């Protein structure tokens, strides 16, 4: 039997993870240090393809092959699960508690996601796994599992603690500190007693910052002066962050450059939170938080006591914006009105009443991306146009 190809595909979870997935396949989501795609590639020691929604597919590499194991990209990898996936019999699917984990399809060439869904639903032969899995069912699962994934990624990358290479101007508590090349860190307090701290290549921690692990700082990312970073937080590559951040994930290329609190939140790429922007992550009555759900177009119970802000790519918030508990902000939304914004802000919102036009969205996105030397290409424009024309969150 020839060696199978591996492809990460988007199941029903893709819609549940909106607005974060409006502009990306699930596999492109960051949790811990790495994206889901990067995790699977490390585990499998090979390049994997991505099969996603038709309007997103041009963004990703996918070469149809009649000998392929398709893996649900909402599932996070582990060694035990990996072995079971590699040994799925042909034309069978691996299941965990009625969830399809992976399917081995032989002698069938899949060209589109919908073809895969139809074929896998018709496959009768199943293998039940007892290996516990971690799966992203909702956007808030990203910050919930982030601390554990930082630890897992440290192991996956095979890193060795090296706190000794940091400047003596820093105060270090614990030794589980991992420093990549080119890190600039002076006069900071790094506490790894309760979890690892990872500083990515060419990242910078300015004077006066205080950090508690588990924490991951992506390559070329910056912590501004006197930032206070609590456990289970990831700041993705090329982001700039100041103020207070707790148990949050910033995918990358986004800025929260000034004071203000961000807690129990997930922020996409190319977002900006203005100075003194804050979010609530706990209700006054301490009850569980409800958040907007795209498939049902209703608010659903997250079953979490702490849940903050979910923000799609290219969204912006003006200075002094006050986000309520469990707020969801769509792609290219602009939040700037006085008082608390709505708990759900649609894609391309311009304040409370108007719409951010597509041509203006292109203009701003191009300007923002060029600051990181990344062009806004036609594929990006087509994705934004699809979202603009097909609002997932029409009320």
How would you characterize this protein structure?
The protein is built from eight helices and 37 strands. It has 395 residues and is α/β, with parallel strands linked by helices. It has a nine-stranded parallel beta sheet, covered by helices on one side. It has a six-stranded mixed beta sheet with strand order 2-1-3-6-5-7, covered by helices on one side. It has a six-stranded parallel beta sheet with strand order 9-12-15-18-21-24, with no helix packed on it. The longest helix is centred in the C-terminal third of the chain and has 13 residues, at 358-370. The radius of gyration is 21 Å and the shape is globular. The model has no long low-confidence stretch (mean pLDDT 95).
